[in-house]
Amino acid sequence: MLRFAPSPTGDMHIGNLRAAVFNYIIAKQKGEKFLVRIEDTDLSRNIEGKDKEILAILNLFGLLWDDLVYQSHNFKHHHSFAQHLIKENKAFYCYCTKEFLEQKKQEAIENKVAFRYDDAWAELEKQSNLKPVVRLKGAKESIEFYDEIKGHLQFAPAEIDSFVILREDGVPTYNFACACDDMIYNIDFIVRGEDHVSNTPKQILIQTSLGYDKKIGYAHLPIILGESGRKMSKRDSASSVSWLLEQGFLPQAIMNYLISMGNKTPTEIFTLSEAIEWFDITNIAKSPVKFDIKRLRYINREHLKRLNEDEFALLLQSKDTTIGAIGKIYLEETSTLNEIREKIEMIFSPKDIKKLYENENFEFECIELFKVLDLLIMQESKILDDYDSFKNEAMKLSNLRGKKFFKPLRILLTGESHGVDLNILYPYIRFYLKDILRIRGENDISQHI
Ligand code: GLU
């Protein structure tokens, strides 16, 4: 079984989503189940509703789980495993106070040595501190494992001293709950962020201390860097999956991008089911990857191009195929749904003819042309049927030529002074001309006529 183990403590980060996608793909490739485990053991950091948000995102991306568990439901198992370890003398109660440990840490800093918990301290404060934690006895031998991305990794015993598995309130630590649950659910392979590399030997030690000798496979993903070249933090808005969705990036494009980061892929643009055919975690580069929003924009546009007009319209919250067709035309100069929405809104909003377009104001020409177009539309003239006859007639009646005709025409039809080919756009806006031909401001056009 493969698993994705998010903590409901904040927004879903793209690094988390990337781990979820890879675990899901590998589960499908191996024909194994995919478990979602909400790691809600850090009660003080849990945020109400974040679990639902994470599940909704997984759903939206098509990462459907076979099983869902909340880690806190397994507390009873964690406790019985801890009791077992105590009985076997592999874990012990530690009564050290925080102040005592802090003082030992300070001493280590002053002596310029790495801090290491000494098992002899365990009961020194037994009289004054009634609330012990439980620690697992540190490693006696080095612990090694093979990481599919980083290669062979080895940790000396000195790096793994006796560490806490149950806090003083009895709540299991992340490492303990995680290692127990990976055993309980018979997890085979784990993909997660490289910030967990140093946790892995601890989790292996917990499992071997419990007599579990199954070799779990690991792949720790390199961190994602922001545009600045520093680790992408929660403060970088593009690191939040919800933010990217709000900007109008498609789930399939975000997924395509996350799979292709630091990877060799047979094609640039692909779907999740295509990736399941060829994905190989060992191809993921060891070095950190930079989040490149320009590349994501390109991939998004390519996925939008693959949609038909009806699908496109639905994404623009319209049932009208024509809106989808207009959206597709605008892909020439946009990359996200929001940008396309903005263009369509401009077409249908009253036009700001007082605005300076490229340092030139076409207010007078717009008014002249408006009068002509208004008349043509009122007459429901046949001339409106195709762009050429419409344009020729409008030019003739308005007496405007060259850019003094074309710029105002474009402004009146699209709200912009340059953009997509009007010849291509016209057939789709033809039946909306009445709605489109409106001018903004208190100086309504009627006052000029
Ligand atoms: N809850 C941990 C996290 O979100 C899970 C890490 C793991 O996959 O073990 O980082």
Automatic annotation (TrEMBL):
It is an enzyme of class 6 (ligase). It comes from Helicobacter cappadocius. One of its GO terms (cellular component) is cytosol. It comes from the Bacteria. Residues 3-297 form the Glutamyl/glutaminyl-tRNA synthetase class Ib catalytic domain. GO terms for molecular function: ATP binding; glutamate-tRNA ligase activity; tRNA binding. The lineage of its organism: Bacteria, Pseudomonadati, Campylobacterota, Epsilonproteobacteria, Campylobacterales. Keywords: Aminoacyl-tRNA synthetase, ATP-binding, Cytoplasm, Ligase, Nucleotide-binding, Protein biosynthesis. This is Glutamate--tRNA ligase. ATP binds at K234. PANTHER family: GLUTAMATE--TRNA LIGASE (PTHR43311), GLUTAMATE--TRNA LIGASE, MITOCHONDRIAL-RELATED (PTHR43311:SF2). A motif ('KMSKS' region) lies at residues 231-235. The keyword Ligase applies. Catalyzes the attachment of glutamate to tRNA(Glu) in a two-step reaction: glutamate is first activated by ATP to form Glu-AMP and then transferred to the acceptor end of tRNA(Glu). A motif ('HIGH' region) lies at residues 6-16. GO terms for biological process: glutamyl-tRNA aminoacylation. PROSITE patterns: AA_TRNA_LIGASE_I (PS00178). It is found in: Cytoplasm. Belongs to the class-I aminoacyl-tRNA synthetase family. Glutamate--tRNA ligase type 1 subfamily. Monomer. It catalyses: tRNA(Glu) + L-glutamate + ATP = L-glutamyl-tRNA(Glu) + AMP + diphosphate. It holds the Pfam family tRNA-synt_1c. Its EC number is 6.1.1.17. NCBIfam families: gltX_bact. Its main location: cytoplasm. The keyword Cytoplasm applies.
